[in-house]
Amino acid sequence: MVETSTVAREKAAERADLDETVAGAVDRIVTEGAPRLHRAWPDLLATGVVAGIEVTFGLVALLLVTEATGSVLLGALAFSFGFVALLLGRSELFTEGFLVPVTVAAAGRARPRDVARFWFGSAAGNLLGGFVLTWVAVQALEALHERGVAMATVYVDHGFTREAFCLAVLAGAGITMMTRMHNGTDSMPVRVFVSVFAAFLLTGLGLVHVILDTLLIFFALHTGGAPFGYGDLGGFFVFALLGNVVGGVGLVTLLRLVRDRELLAAHRRAA
């Protein structure tokens, strides 16, 4: 009987520790995320532009290493530089903004229109920063033109297929899981590792990411040698966006909201 009681107490303590960890992660998301949703327009657009620039540097590293080694996996590892820069610079990549803004709104600290504003501003900033820097990269790095066109064409040629949609769903889910893990730890080395691993999977598996792949397509279009145009880019963007939202919001974020519903209710009462 004594041993049984001891085991029961240990299990209860483990559950309490787990609940405390989950509560701490939710508190961090809400307290740190709320100010992000209420940034002024210039601040929101600026952080989005910086994120687009940082991802473009990762993209250039991907093209450079893949061209030099012929290995997509080594190129994917080089691309992780862009995600580490996003983490350390605290800039706003559009698809990283699925979990936090929705959770903040569910906690009663923002309205749906604040979430929509945040998404629009971060996406617009990402595209603007990426468009400009990919043009600069094309002018400076002629040796990477052929590789950039070839890699971008793969994504455009996917078309509107079930495979392409599922690749976009996986990308959205993976990025949102990365965000969730970032908020689940205070350890910067762990966060860096998570960023590197997520970036490696994203590009190594050829997942369809609305911002990253759009910037890659920008690069190809700037070369003047792409076998597709801006109309094809528009179709790709909408299709990839839908898949990313289904994966990031529909699969990961909403399930986390169900998991944390009592904690979020407490935040709403406090608000």
TrEMBL record:
In the record, what terms sit under GO molecular function? Answer: formate transmembrane transporter activity
Q: Which InterPro entries match?
A: Aquaporin-like, For/NO2_transpt
Say if the entry is tagged with keyword Lipoprotein.
no
Give its localization: Membrane
Q: How is this protein annotated for GO cellular component?
A: plasma membrane
Identify the Pfam families for this entry: Form_Nir_trans
Q: How does it sit in the membrane?
A: Multi-pass membrane protein
Q: What is this protein called?
A: Formate efflux transporter (TC 2.A.44 family)
Query: Any idea which UniProt keywords this protein has?
Result: Membrane, Transmembrane, Transmembrane helix
Report TM segments.
44-65, 71-89, 118-140, 160-178, 190-221, 233-258
Instruction: Look up the coiled coil feature and give its residue ranges.
Output: none
